[in-house]
Amino acid sequence: MKRAKIVTLIKSEAPQASILIKGWVRTRRDAKGFSFLEINDGSCLKNIQVVADETMANYEEIRKISTGSAVTVTGRLVASKGKGQQWEVQAEQVDTLHLAPESFPLQKKRHTDEFLRTIAHLRPRTNKYGAVFRIRSELSFAIHNFFRERGFRYVHTPIITGSDCEGAGELFRVTTLLPEVPRNPDGTVDVTRDFFGTEANLTVSGQLSAEMLALSLGDVYTFGPTFRAENSNTRRHVAEFWMVEPEMAFCDLTGNMDLGEDLIRYLTRFIMENCADDVALFANFVDKGLMATLETIANSDFERIPYAEAVHILLGARQNFEFEPADGKDLQSEHERFLTETLFKKPVIVYDYPKTIKPFYMRLNDDNATVAAMDVLVPGIGEIIGGSQREERLDVLEKRMDEAGLPKEPYWWYLDARRYGSVEHSGFGLGFERMLMLLTGITNIRDVIAFPRTPGVIEF
Ligand code: 4AD
Ligand code: MG
């Protein structure tokens, strides 16, 4: 007999004479003549209730089945006499696959997120984290659907690279030289003897490579892991995260903003429609305002304001910020959240940032002071998307690299793309984990990725 998943059983239209289920016991309770087992197999939020009656041959064993144990059940799917569920399983046979001892940490009670982080290997077995990882899966497919429907090609860019796209120096070095590092006479590391014959690191963004493919295929996107050795222990940073990076040839900043807006609205609607049960859990237990936030995002046009205006608003706001906003400085997350949460009460796109606080590849505006950058800010999080129109003029790009103190040699191929058929093009990066935080109301990024990597933490 083929194993039936609980997600299909609970949607059954009629009783079924003979089914087989396998799963983990959430709880067991005994009544006179019966033992009731709540079984979950991870296929959906709901458990299925299994009723074992005392006439079963191994009834005494069944009454020893503990929370966390794995079982296999054969029986009949029948209309439930109890409240709260349409169907239940009248067991014909219940066998224990593996009995969990009492030390199983997920006994039926509320656990804090902090505690659950210490058992990240088991937390997907809770309702909340099961829901997180199901939504994470659906969201991945939604991303591919969105781009595919619009004719974008999915491209793969290198994980190991020789360049620092963002120029922020937050790189994880990749090397085979350890532990005996060969040195030059002056004491510096002899990188010519390293695996690639030069320095290498994990990518912080696939953008530079994606640009090459966009300038060949038109509209492309990457969706993969990125790595940043940022030593910031915040609620919205991890050292390993996933980024969605579309890149479009023949597209300016406005087209780029339009795509970012469309993407966030689409993903929000998709998850509201396709993960309704799991989303309801977050609306009930994590963030009471979640449904209202999601409705707003799914149905509103995002506010768009230039950076200069954003700073002007912040300076005039009667609000005690920890960091004073200042023209020419980057926005802090508290500033971003003020704009989107308090002032506009919907997503906000801030564009045209000072060139001094943005990477070399962003297109210089005619004012010579700002670049065609855009950040999308959302309630509860702040920045969720960072992007720009790219500098397509070779001379301007070289000048910006000089100003940034970047060596041109490693970027020869990037500059080459500006020599042959250079055209306006744009793209952005959407933080996948931040999108999950938005959709679930979860406030700590460590709780939307199964095994988070943060400074000092590499467990699991
Ligand atoms: O704004 P960022 O740094 O942009 C880029 O890397 C561009 N090269 C993308 C592009 O234009 N193709 O990062 C993009 C997004 C941020 O808005 C944020 O959502 C997320 O990536 N992000 C992080 N998410 C989790 N942990 C971190 N440490 C993150 N750093 C950035
Ligand atoms: Mg950014």
Strand order of the largest sheet: 6-9-10-15-14-13-12-11
Give start-end ranges of low-pLDDT stretches.
Answer: none
Helix content: 25-40%
CATH fold descriptor of the largest domain: BirA Bifunctional Protein, domain 2
The rough form would be described as elongated
What would you note in describing this structure?
This protein has 460 residues and is of the alpha+beta class. The protein folds into two domains: 93 residues, Nucleic acid-binding proteins (OB fold (Dihydrolipoamide Acetyltransferase, E2P), Beta Barrel), CATH 2.40.50.140; 289 residues, 2-Layer Sandwich (BirA Bifunctional Protein, domain 2). The protein is 30% helix and 24% strand. It has an eight-stranded mixed β-sheet with strand order 6-9-10-15-14-13-12-11, with helices on both faces. A five-stranded mixed beta barrel has the order 1-2-3-5-4. It has a two-stranded antiparallel sheet with strand order 7-8. A hairpin with a 7-residue loop joins strand 4 and strand 5. The longest helix is centred in the N-terminal third of the chain and has 23 residues.
